[in-house]
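Quick one: structure for this chain?
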Amino acid sequence: MLDIAAALHRWSQEGRDFAVATVVEVGGSAPRGPGAAMAVDGDGTVIGSVSGGCVEGVVYELCVQALQDGRTVRERFGYSDEDAFAVGLTCGGVIDVLVTPVRSGAPVVRAALSAADRGEPAALARVVRGPEGLLGRALLVRADGTYEGSLDGRADLDREAAAQARALLDSGRTGSAELAEDGTSCPGGLTLFVESSVPPPRMIVFGAVDFATALVRAGKFLGHHVTVCDARPVFATRARFPEADDLVVDWPHRYLAGTETDARTVLCVLTHDARFDIPLLEEALRLPVAYVGAMGSRRTHEDRNRRLREAGLTDEELARLRSPIGLDLGARTPEETALSIAAEIVAERRGGTGAPLTGSRTPIHHDGGGRTEDGTPSPAAA
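Got it. Here's what it folds into:
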């Protein structure tokens, strides 16, 4: 539910009661992943989505029922070969949805929505499988390990649940954790669904050029916190980049060395000038970031690789560089080029091939094969 936290927090501040349906498990091909949510308030207003339209009508009714009887329920939706008109997913996948009423007596959930809306790192852990009386019980776990709420009033179980949730929060992941009822991490007792709310991943665009203007818009569309950095103050202006979160006038390599990055950070080098590119890429390719791409022709790429090898970079480090940057879309304009770059970033993050889906037999929805579960890069593809 934290993916619609801003809207739900507004409802909470207005004193509204509402019910939230959250996708807690996915099997096969499904339009939305774990954490996708839809909410219904007492007036019947709807926000969010759990399936892109396939089962929203039934989920709406479940939310209305939860508001009436105050019960948390878990329902499974799949595809019926026997009855093509049955409610289910036409894509052939299976989703499990947890429907939870959130009333004035749900302080833990409301506190989680407030934290997520403020951009604070926090994890909401809820029981999604186990004894009926515990279904929907919640803990709010913060980055320092403190927590509020309780699953069943037992300190040992709460401590272990908080530790499991914090491990997922530390890596920025949403997922499941198994606990035994005695509080140990043995499967078979309770299943927790943990939603992590972390600050948006960073995209740092180096080079305040026309292509950067379009890429900033694409980065914001993908949910990044976007910074534009250029050593030339005449180009790095708010008038040219009104949608950027941050504008930095500094030498790119010096700024990168001093700023905070992590395993989700995306670095796009559009300077197309060896004076900036070489020292910047020396720094960038040695950082554990998600993506490093650099603009330039194939001749520029070969010359840049030669200079980087002379600077001491290894073949393994150079293999991380996406250059020329972007997928082959035949792009010409800055907007088309930004789309090409954004597509490559998504493919790298999700493990996609970049090939057309028409005629292919690969899965439509990947599990992130281009990157390990904690967001760190897997070995680069050729």
